[in-house]
Amino acid sequence: MSEDAALRLDEQLCFKLYAASRAVIRGYRPMLESLGLTYPQYLAMLVLWEWRDAPPAHPTVKALGERLALDSGTLTPLLKRLEHLGLVQRQRGRPDEREVHLALTEAGAALRDRVGPLRDALMCRAGLERGGLGALREQLDGLLAQLTGSG
Amino acid sequence: MSEDAALRLDEQLCFKLYAASRAVIRGYRPMLESLGLTYPQYLAMLVLWEWRDAPPAHPTVKALGERLALDSGTLTPLLKRLEHLGLVQRQRGRPDEREVHLALTEAGAALRDRVGPLRDALMCRAGLERGGLGALREQLDGLLAQLTGSG
DNA sequence: GTGAATTGAGTTGTGTGCAATTCAATAGCG
DNA sequence: CGCTATTGAATTGCACACAACTCAATTCAC
């Protein structure tokens, strides 16, 4: 492949990823608006809902940050907004007071039941519910492993 | 698939896309820092470099926005930064003074020569240069078509 | 035990994304 | 021609991302 061709935008996997990611987020927006959440807030809630069933030893900001690959600079204000919405409780850890432990409120736990139907509608609209999407997931897994492992 | 499983974060294609996209951008960062560009600025430059060879009828903010799926709210300040860096010229269109036409400066055009080697290094590090990534690209194409077509 | 290094959140500053709005310029229509 | 609708940028406001930094709490080395 020539140098010029290699630099063409359409050839750039990076741009496709970036564009596809933003397109998916745009697709989620109407559904999330009806829940009063932004997309990163929704991802944080997904993790907290998972943790309701199998909580880690320390459900802290750090643990959430590792799960989402986001740092405290992003998560602290985001979690304060979720707290302000009455969905999440933040509490200083004991005995380690550096940690902030996260827990769902009743409203936060209840919100999960409203997500399923909306998500199905979106997946259906995006044509994602069946077929070759498993392969895409696996390739993204591989890409992530490459980038976080060797990068 | 059960409802709970469907909501598991790992199953969410949306999260994988989001995480992979950010990981790729993180990977590009050191290379782009040496060029003095952010990632969206780099994408804009890619388009302008392409247009140097085959410019559209109107290389305007609108045309760039359609190429990158970004609106003027994002592009106007971004392009002002590129102008301030001396890489891009912005000029009100004639005869239509609503349009803003974009052109590379000499420095902006010259910057392209510094990208190739750096990009190769990154692609290599990410294991992206050959092999099964074409399939990933195609699947992202399909996903984008689904989301922008029917969404 | 005590001082140095580390760790977990939080803060600050810059640069996106994107909805909503504004505004001037142009196009469309009778 | 005059009037309205549309269009292209720009602006505003909010919420991320993320680097760099601060600070208090804890851990480690000796």
Automatic annotation (TrEMBL), chains A, B:
One Pfam match, given by its short name, reads: Staph_reg_Sar_Rot
Asked if DNA-binding is a keyword of the record, the answer is yes
Task: Report the record's Gene Ontology biological process terms.
Answer: response to stress
SMART domains from the UniProt entry: HTH_MARR
Its domain of life reads: Bacteria
Q: Name one GO cellular component term.
A: cytoplasm
**InterPro entries hit by this protein:** HTH_MarR-typ, MarR/SlyA-like, Transc_reg_Sar_Rot_HTH, WH-like_DNA-bd_sf, WH_DNA-bd_sf
State where the protein is found.
Cytoplasm
Molecular function terms, GO-annotated: DNA binding; DNA-binding transcription factor activity
What keywords sit in the KW lines?
Cytoplasm, DNA-binding, Transcription, Transcription regulation
| Alphabetical list of Gene3D superfamilies matching this protein | Winged helix-like DNA-binding domain superfamily/Winged helix DNA-binding domain
Q: Which residues form the HTH marR-type domain?
A: 10-149
Q: Would the keyword Kinase turn up in this protein's UniProt record?
A: no
Principal localization reads cytoplasm
What is the protein name for this chain?
MarR family transcriptional regulator
